[in-house]
Amino acid sequence: MTSFIQTLILGLLVGALYALMASGLTLIFGVMRVINLAHGAFAVLAAFLTFTLWKHLGLDPILSIPIVMAVMFAVGWLVYVAVIRHVRGSHVSMTVLATFGIALMLEGIMGFIWGNTSTAVRVSYTDASIALGPLYIPQVMLIAAGIAMLILGGLYLLLNHTWAGRAIRAASANEAGALLVGVSVATIAALTFAIGVSTLGAGGAMLSTIYPFLPGSHYQWIARLLAIVVLGGLGSLPGAILGALVIGVGEIAATSYLGAAWPVAVPFLVIIVVLITRPQGILGARLREDAVA
Amino acid sequence: MRRTTAFRAMVGIAAIALAVSACSADSPNNGDTITIGASLPLTGEFSQGGLDTQHGYETWVEMTNEAGGLLGKQVKVIVRDDATTQDTAVSNYNNLISKDKVNLVLGSQSSLLNIPSSAVAEKNKMLFVCPSCGSPDMYNRGFKYIFFSQQTVATDQAKVFAEWIANLPADQRPKTAAYPTLDDPFAGPVVEGAEKILSAAGIKTVYKDQYPATTKNFDPIVNAMRDAGAEIVVQGAQFEDGVNMIRSMNRAGYKPSIVYQSSSPTYGQQYLEGVGEQNAEGVFFSSSYSSLAKTNQNAEFVKKFEEKFGGLPPEDAADGFAAGQVLAAAVTAVGSIDDQAKLADWLRNNTVQTILGPLSWNADGSPKGNFLVGQWQGGVSQVVLPPDVATTDKIVGWQGGPI
């Protein structure tokens, strides 16, 4: 029983980090129908920014989160204006190609600036744990989960209690309708993309304290994040959170009870089952093809 | 008007393309130069080792040219990035041989990339001196041109370490062992070789599992090892997985007295920064190289490397340099590079003095020697075994504890 509870604790903590990282991806798809394959690369970029602030200014990664989020917001806006807006509304293959191109470009730029060697941020809480009898809670994961709850809570408030949030939800639900009631969908799309990349900034900052990373790490992250949003339902924020927790617990449980090779397979097996039984994902909405913008 | 603009654009693009092709037409092979081609993972998962190997190659080229070159000609190395993908590595070697017309090739980094890459060299009857070909699978294909320029294949890389553990007094010898390993043609055999020796010594295997390269979270693996009561951990690691394992062991409060990792600790400063000096203390690893060794050209290599790149050379850089030494020895002895079967025959029948020590090979190109066993002590990578080449006589447990 102790082992099961420990597995559950570790899985939920990892899932919370995944949720923070996946929230932007699903938000961007929800509003723009853009599958952002550069999302993993943005996460690694945020990790490198955190590393730079820690290494050169001695700034604790937790304290650097607002700065990293602000920088990532600007990066997201710029990327939207420079690339995404030109392919938005095109066939999905175009957006996939464009965002994959951005990912490759970011990988190259990061390699040029920080080098293609593995980088790690080590702080006092990286290796520390809180003991609860026979159980332990890794401090860094607990902090990451706390920050995830804070940021996701903020995102919820933004989406549900502000004009911009309502506009984002309106554009997500019905772009033409949103235009008719005076929402500047183009601006909202840029804002959404920037917010999506910005929330990822917090995820990337915490990521840097948990795992080593290098520019090429983004391939591993995008695969995992896509699995999460597909599982939760593309475009659904609560779905992404639920999907992230399911994948997080699934990965840890698979390693514990099936073997270390299974965490790669289990999430995708879960997704296959979910997509067969519920194609729109756990919390995704079923859409008519001709109703999608 | 639009057609004119489009036409101008096309002419412009064509002009740029011509200019670029003219630049690349700068033949790498012009009679006064011996050109050597290599594909390396300069980006992607194995970029850490790939860049180090590139530094080793470059240092060897510079020192060779300063000493008069090879066969009286200057040496030039062309390195292509394979982004840690096998297909690109194969494509790179095909292009280096058929388009760039390189005179010689050197191997890539990691068995994963060298297994298919060596087949390209073999098909083209070109000598393939390889700095990172530890997988035993490299040598069961009947190839005649491949030579691994380290002391031994992966199966025997932990041999000296495992035999030392097996020969510890019974009251010091651990009774249970865990063997987590990366699913990789190099890392797996290292652990298998160690387990064979330790099992024969009565050390019970209580955990053994293989994890994929995408594994980031090692907490459940560490939990399983801890719950199984493993007193020694032997991990077949690349780099990040080694760092993540140590971090997870700390988080779980799991402190086995002996920790061995196959490759990760050899990444020098990167490893120290990843796990922290205190957590690196006492970690065992097998190493082909010591910067303190009194081997052929080692002092000059260390000096040149520090000048060029700063800091002590990591193992992969030294392995790259040694590959160059092996290639140079064969070319110099044969006196020609026209028939590379002769170069291969020469290597099969001779010993080459390198910065790693003397290297000699079996008929299949696998090396005949033994690895050194290293250990991190006080932030310094020391050689602790075998005793006759050890740089210190002190051996400690993980995090400085007793064995």
Structural commentary:
The complex is a heterodimer of chains A (293) and B (403). Helices cover 74% and strands 3% of the residues of chain A. The model of chain A has no long low-confidence stretch (mean pLDDT 88). Chain A is mostly helical and 293 residues long. Chain A has a two-stranded antiparallel ribbon. Chain A has one domain. In chain A, helix 2 (39-57) runs antiparallel to helix 3 (61-87) and helix 9 packs parallel to helix 11 (262-277). Chain B is built from 13 helices and 14 strands. Chain B has helices spanning 2-24, 47-66, 86-98, 111-123, 159-166, 187-200, 219-228, 240-251, 269-275, 277-280, 298-309, 315-334, 340-348, and strands spanning 33-40, 74-81, 104-106, 128-130, 146-148, 176-182, 204-211, 232-235, 258-261, 284-287, 352-354, 357-359, 372-377, 380-385. In chain B, the strands form four sheets. Chain B has a five-stranded parallel sheet with strand order 2-1-3-4-5, sandwiched between helices. A four-stranded parallel sheet of chain B has the order 7-6-8-9, sandwiched between helices. Chain B has two domains: 33-153 and 293-359, Rossmann fold (3-Layer(aba) Sandwich); 156-290 and 372-400, 3-Layer(aba) Sandwich (Rossmann fold). In chain B, helix 2 crosses helix 11, helix 2 crosses helix 12 (315-334) and helix 12 (315-334) crosses helix 13. Chain B is of the alpha/beta class. The longest helix of chain B is centred in the first third of the chain and has 23 residues, at 2-24. Residues 1-7 and 13-28 of chain B have low confidence and may be disordered. In chain B, strand 1, helix 2 and strand 2 (74-81) form a beta-alpha-beta unit. The termini of chain B are far apart. The A-B interface holds A 3, 6-7, 10, 14, 107-108, 111, 115-118, 120, 122, 126-129, 131, 136, 138-140, 210-212, 214-216, 220, 223, 251-253, 255-256, 259-261, 263-264 and B 42-45, 47-48, 50-51, 83-84, 180, 183, 209-212, 214-217, 219-221, 223-224, 227, 239-240, 243-244, 247, 250-253, 267, 270, 273-274, 276, 279.
